[in-house]
Design a protein that fits this description.
single chain, 244 residues, alpha/beta, two-stranded antiparallel sheet, 7 helices
Length: 244
């Protein structure tokens, strides 16, 4: 069975910033989805913030093996009930790939249990080199020992996240900063990936290396297509609802 992917995106910058609209005429999520749709083993749908239920109904999530998540200015507008819904599905086995400024999303902070704070600097000519730290890991399959993005927003340490189970990429920047740019965790039965590049005013999601990492991350994080909810004996995988 194919891997069912939902590409979730805030989809606000493309509507308000002409520069972003020129770089991504079909939206940043459209650029990601167009690449993933070229893969015969992936079936892709789009979902955005301004749709009913943010495009993430119970039915959509039941039929999603892995979700990608990009957000920025409107993290607070994501309804807590939808965050609960996505969180529950991750614990049940749905994979999630969190991109760039999604580090401050409600769902990523819920999964990490930390502030997810970091240092950042936006400049027009900031070079980023991404170095592979786990050669042979499935997420960096087909990637050389490093690749370069001529222009990106700088993220720098300290990145307030739990110690990753795997750090597969680190970045170095023109100002000397470094950053853990590719990390994985397990939460319940679900796999979580964080992948750093993706500032909206740069053509990052047209870069073949970036798209290849996302493609690989989707395959690595995906739940087994069509799998039932994981269980322990005769009990479904449980969770404790946390106060908001």
């Amino acid at each position: 069975m194919p891997i069912r992917v939902t590409v979730w995106h805030e989809h606000r910058h493309e509507k308000k910033n002409p520069l972003v609209a020129r770089i991504y005429p079909e939206g940043m999520h459209g650029a990601i989805a167009n690449h993933l749709r070229r893969c015969e083993d992936l079936v892709v749908r789009l979902a955005t913030l301004d749709e009913p239920e943010h495009g993430l109904s119970e039915e959509v999530l039941r039929n999603t093996d892995v979700i990608t998540w990009w957000g920025h200015h409107a993290h607070a507008e994501v309804k807590d009930e939808i965050v609960d819904r996505v969180h529950r599905r991750v614990l049940e086995g749905m994979g999630i790939v969190v991109l760039h400024s999604g580090h401050f999303s409600k769902i990523f902070r819920r999964l990490m249990g930390t502030t997810c704070n970091l240092k950042w600097r936006e400049e027009q000519n900031e070079r980023e080199i991404l170095w592979v730290t786990r050669p042979g890991h499935p997420i960096v399959r087909g990637i050389d020992d490093h690749f370069i993005l001529p222009r990106e927003e700088m993220y720098g340490e300290f990145f307030d996240i739990p110690e990753p189970e795997c750090t597969f990429l680190i970045s170095s920047f023109g100002g000397g900063e470094v950053f853990r740019s590719g990390c994985t965790w397990t939460r319940g039965a679900g796999r979580v990936v964080y992948f750093r590049p993706g500032h909206e005013t740069f053509p990052t999601y047209h870069d073949p290396n970036v798209l290849k990492v996302i493609e690989n991350a989707v395959r690595w994080a995906a739940a087994t297509p069509g799998a039932a909810t994981p269980s322990f004996g005769n009990r479904k995988l449980g969770w404790i609802d946390q106060p908001h």
